[in-house]
Amino acid sequence: MKHLPITALLLAAGLTAAAQAQNPLLLQPRDHTRILEQSYELDPGAAAALANRYGNLYVNTVPDGPLRVRLTITSRGTDSLKTLAKLEQIVLAETYENGRVRIEPGAGQQLGGMELLQGMSIQMDVEAPAGHPLALSLIRGDLHLDTRTEPVDIDLKHGSLFGNSLLAEGNSIRAVNAVCSFDSITSARLDLRESEWTLRAAGTLDLKAESSRTDLASVQTLRTDTRVGDLHVGRVQEIRGSYDATKMLIDQIGQRCVLSGRLAPAMEIGSLSPGFDTLAITSFAAPVRIQTPEETVFELDARVERAELTAEGYYTLLAPKQAEDKRAVRRYHIQPETDGARMAAPAGVIRIDSRMGAVKIKKTAQTGLTER
Fold it and tell me: What is the b/e burial string over 122-153, where b = at least 16 CB atoms within 10 angstroms of the residue's CB?
């Protein structure tokens, strides 16, 4: 091997620096892009997992055919040859476990392995056949999901989620520091942390939320465990669960509501359907406000400790059933009546057990809450 004299190396370096000084464009970084595509034949009904930690994930549903994945890889650099060489190292990594394929961006080992992916932007576009369950994982990106007829498992951190409809039973979504929006979900378990969630319509939801804001326009059955945040429900047929330090607003209850709350702002219920069955609330330092339409018939049984219960429109019926002044406990009872005549069989029962939280029941002509 021939070695150049040190003077020759210094001369070459000087010429390179001079050329760059005369042409500043050589020093400016430019975007370089590579497209990588791959198709996968899936067994009938087999699940597929897709993950991306370096950009967005777009999933479109197709009737049938193979699973198609397209990566758009972008890297920025001043040296085109080196940047393109790095792009060539990016691959679609495949792993198989329990009959399921997992696909995600990977890298070869010649130029640093997985460290190459840091600083690259990788968009993953997927055409997923309808008859296959999916598991989707995304970090720091946007996830767009087309309508799916098979179960979907989603794990999202520091990003956003926009979905059409999940028509299957048994979906699962976990979101951390994310903004999520869906049109409709048949059934799902939602685990939210420091996130915002908007859903137009749902069948059955199992909601666990912490430091999150959740807006559900219409739900058939809702089981909730919320801590710190906001939960707004439009119309719900049945709701059960607990809320701690959560602002709880419910526009209308169709049949049944069983909730326990503590250390929370006033829970507001805008309306009870005329045929509702049960409204049972246990609260500690969590006031309760209930609006009842004029046509709603109910029986009230309430226990209030270190707080007051007021009932606008029911003055002639409301009186302490039992006063235990030493413990500052009061019990109230309202018998059902309509048009001045008591009903033999009440349409619904309201049971309230409140400690250190005021209770207000108001007869009103309006339906739902006027403001959130």
Answer: bbbbbbbbeebbbbbbbeebbbebbebebbbb
DSSP sequence for 142-201:
EEEE--BSS-EEEEEEEEEEEEEEE-SS-EEEEEEEEEEEEEEEEEEEEEEES-EEEEEE
- Which tokens belong to 260? 């326990």
Q: How many CA atoms lie within 13 A of 200 on its CB side?
A: 9
Reduced to 3 DSSP states, what percent helix, strand and coil does the chain have, rounded to the nearest 5?
10, 60, 30
C-alpha 310/C-alpha 319 separation (Å) is 10
Structure tokens at 41: 């034949």
* Cβ atoms 217, 234 nearer than 8 A: yes
Mean pLDDT of 151-169: 98
Quick one: tokens of 201? 């319509």
Check residue 311 and give its pLDDT.
84
Exposed, middle or buried by CB within 10 Å (0-12, 13-18, 19+), for 64?
exposed
Q: Which DSSP string corresponds to 17-65?
A: HHHHHH-GGGGS-EEEEEEEEEEE---TT--EEEEESSS-EEEEEESSS
Kindly give, in sequence order, each residue whose CB lies less than 8 Å from that of residue 48, ignoring residues fewer than 6 positions away. Answer: 40, 42, 67, 100, 101, 102, 103, 128, 132, 133, 134, 135
Residue at token pair 């497209």: 35
The whole-model pTM stands at 0.86
Q: How far apart are CA 110 and CA 232, in angstroms?
A: 53
User: In this structure, are strands 309-312 and 359-364 parallel, antiparallel, or unpaired?
Assistant: parallel
d(CA 254, CA 257): 9
- Token duo for residue 92: 């679609």
Percent of the chain surpassing pLDDT 90: 67
